[in-house]
Design a protein that fits this description.
By secondary structure, this protein is of the alpha/beta class. It folds into 3 domains: 240 residues, Immunoglobulin-like (Sandwich); 66 residues; 324 residues, TIM Barrel, CATH 3.20.20.80. 24% of the residues lie in helices and 22% in strands. It contains 15 helices and 27 strands. The strands form 4 sheets. Strands 1, 2, 3, 4, 5, 6, 7, 8, 9, 10, 11, 14 and 15 form a 13-stranded mixed β-sheet that branches. It is globular and about 80 Å long. The structure holds zinc ion. Zinc ion (ZN) binds next to α10.
Length: 678
């Protein structure tokens, strides 16, 4: 019954106590070759297509779900492939446009222009029976679903790994493949036939859902199974696993769906990510207001002129209202009227989200101090804070920052783990240099006492790091986790630091060259069939092996972060080429949602213009696959120099700009930031 409740009855399920977290995003790459729609997805271009982040419970929590969804596109179709593990395959519905979710199903939702109206839904069961329907608006607004609408040219196929409707055996699962013609997607948006095929760069709002029922073997049932029932005889509720949770058991809240951007790059040409579009938060505020008005009208018969949602300004006429808001981060203006018509007006000049690192270990427990601190940062136009500190400090500070409208990233040191009491109990977890000395022993550490690097090929050490991600991800309100020190010790220091350490590092020195532990040497031998060359610093394979080892750790951590529906960010050296040479960090291989290149020019004895040039290099070397937020080291700047530095970086069209760190930000700088953002 979940979809057929009258709007009035749905009101109670309109407003989740907690809005769901930021929506997932996905960059859909082009199919590199034609696809046969057979439900198998065994073409190599499907194997190379990126996975969407895992499905979650529709109300938000992470769940054990092994559905793997991938997408591709070409000029004719949008392709979807879903692979689902399932030990009991069953289906009963054979007639097109039956209510398919009464069987276990897989569902696709597409709102082509993202205005929360005029969207399509496709459901399919294991018999390849399709229900396609078109909704002029969500059910909450009015029941305007066109159930008998059929998508001309839709191709679908199902592949079963097991036997259908046979409770005697255990099945493996099923997969579904769709080719959805663009003419049906873009042709029925608010601007008909606007773009068929769409242009690369087009962004759609989408969601996916998998419905399952609890069943028992039942010889009297034609399909061999019957649904488990409650005491009153009604079936136990179905499970709803979705890509973008809506916070309530109602998927028809398009304002919470994920974002899918079409890329011109073919599958297999490298990981791509996109930021959550800047107006997303403002849009949610408007729909929260809209839902509250619907609830009020259901109870009192009319809209309320006194209803308050922070940041939303309503304007009333006798029958309807217009609610307006704008985004703090870039000045986009949005309006939503009582018929749920959403209008988004981009700003005249685009603002750039500012990411500020915050040292969370000070003023511990002093809520008032932090409230004031975050309020000042928000007022100066800071978009996100990257907060360092232990888990308790982060759990304390995250809601305080959030209440000031700041996005929050947890700052996690990855391969360098100073004072990690668990790691220190395992001497074999630590990286070893060419002389055989380990980062475990205080007297053997390179450069500084806090260089306590772990080996990138130690599975136990990696599990330990993944557990750190899990612990941070349990803090409510985070947008993402920012990884730091995802690299080896500096085999070559930035030139500006040579004098400080009394070193000439024009070539790789053995005492700063890691990881030569037994495990790494053995793994190299297995991979290349030989030992590391005597002249190790000239061994290109050995260099490549260690770049891959660090990238492997990075990607395991990024995938784990995304599995929590969080964004994976990383502070990296200036460009992938510089990072590979200096610290074995080939970060163009990292599957990041945001890279923050540390363009700290004084470390390199360079002027601030050098930073701008390296920001452009980084964008070119990563082929603009990864959103970049190039970082400024605030001690290198003054309040007077900052606006020009920001402006030069902004001209490289980054996704944001990083600032390190809050301890170095002066009141004069905050004032300059505020002026620059306005
Ligand atoms: Zn090692």
């Amino acid at each position: 019954m979940r979809k057929y409740l009258l709007p009035v009855l749905l009101i109670s399920s309109l407003c989740a106590a907690e809005p769901p977290p930021a929506p997932p995003t996905y960059v859909c790459q082009r199919a590199a070759a034609p696809l046969t729609i057979d439900g198998r997805g065994d073409e190599s271009t499907w194997q190379q297509a990126m996975r969407l982040s895992p499905l979650r419970d529709i109300e938000g929590p992470a769940i054990a779900d092994e559905t793997v969804v991938r997408m591709l596109w070409d000029d004719e179709y949008l392709y979807v492939l879903a692979d689902m593990k399932e030990s009991h395959l069953w289906a009963t519905l054979r007639e097109r446009d039956s209510v398919i979710y009464h069987d276990p199903d897989f569902e696709v939702f597409i709102d082509a222009d993202g205005d929360g109206r005029d969207y399509q839904e496709i459901e399919i069961n294991a018999l390849n029976t399709v229900w396609d329907l078109f909704l002029t608006a969500p059910y909450r607004t009015a029941n305007q679903a066109l159930h008998d609408w059929n998508i001309p040219g839709l191709k679908s196929a199902v592949h079963l790994r097991g036997t259908l409707n046979n409770p005697e055996d255990t099945d493996e699962g099923w997969s579904v493949e769709f080719a959805i013609p663009w003419s049906s997607i873009t042709g029925h948006s608010a601007q008909p036939r606007r773009c068929s095929p769409p242009a690369a760069g087009t962004t759609l709002r989408m969601n996916f859902s998998r419905v399952n029922w609890r069943v028992q073997a039942d010889a009297t049932s034609p399909c061999g199974y019957s649904k488990l029932t409650a005491e009153d005889g009604s079936p136990l509720p179905e499970s709803n696993h979705v890509w973008a949770p809506t916070g309530v058991i109602n998927i028809h809240c398009p304002e919470f769906w994920g974002y899918v951007r079409l890329s011109e790059r073919p599958a297999g040409s490298g990981f791509e990510s996109m930021p959550v579009p800047a107006p997303d938060n403002a849009q949610r505020r408007l729909f929260a207001y809209y839902n509250a008005q619907l609830a009020h009208r259901a109870e009192h018969g009319h809209f309320s002129s006194t209803l308050n949602t922070s940041g939303v300004t309503p304007l009333f006429t006798s029958q309807q209202y217009f609610a307006a808001t704008s985004t703090a981060s870039d000045g986009t203006k949005l309006t939503l009227d009582s018929s749920s018509h959403l209008t988004i007006t981009p700003p005249d000049e685009k603002r750039t989200p500012l990411y500020l690192w915050v040292q969370g270990g000070k003023h511990v427990g002093d809520t008032a101090w932090w409230q004031q601190h975050f309020a000042k940062l928000a007022e100066a136009g800071i978009y996100a804070v990257i907060i360092g500190g232990n888990t308790e400090q982060l759990a304390h500070l995250t809601p305080i920052a959030h209440a000031q409208g700041l996005q929050v990233y947890a700052w996690l040191w990855a391969l360098n783990r100073p004072g990690d009491t668990t790691a220190l109990q395992h001497p074999d977890w630590y990286a070893v240099n060419r002389h055989g000395l380990s980062c475990h022993a205080p007297e053997d550490r390179p450069f500084v006492e806090y260089y306590q690097f772990l080996c990138p090929n130690n599975a136990e050490a990696l599990s330990h790091l993944l557990a750190q991600v899990d612990a941070l991800a349990a803090i409510p309100g985070l947008t993402g986790i920012q990884l730091d020190y995802l690299r080896m010790p500096d085999v070559i220091l930035p030139r500006g630091l040579w004098r400080k350490y009394g070193l000439d590092m024009s070539q790789e020195l053995p005492e700063y060259d890691y990881c030569y532990c037994e495990r790494c040497r053995n793994a190299f031998r297995r991979a290349y069939g030989r030992d590391v060359a005597e002249a190790a610093d000239e061994d290109a394979d050995w260099r490549e092996f260690r770049l891959q080892s660090v990238a492997h750790v990075a990607n395991a951590l990024c995938e784990r972060i995304r599995s929590h529906n969080l964004r994976a960010a990383c502070a990296v050296f200036p460009t992938p080429q510089i990072a590979s040479r200096l610290v074995r960090q080939d970060w163009q291989q990292f599957r990041l949602d945001l890279a923050l290149p540390m363009l700290y020019h004084s470390f390199y004895n360079e002027p601030s213009e050098w930073a701008t040039a390296r920001a452009a290099d980084a964008a070119e070397q990563t082929q603009q696959r990864i959103p970049l937020a190039p970082g400024i080291h605030l001690p290198d700047s003054t309040a007077e120099s900052l606006p020009a530095e920001l402006e030069r970086l902004r001209n490289t069209s980054p996704a944001g700009i990083g600032l390190f760190c809050d301890d170095d930000i002066t009141p004069a700088m905050l004032e300059r930031l505020r002026q620059w953002q306005n």
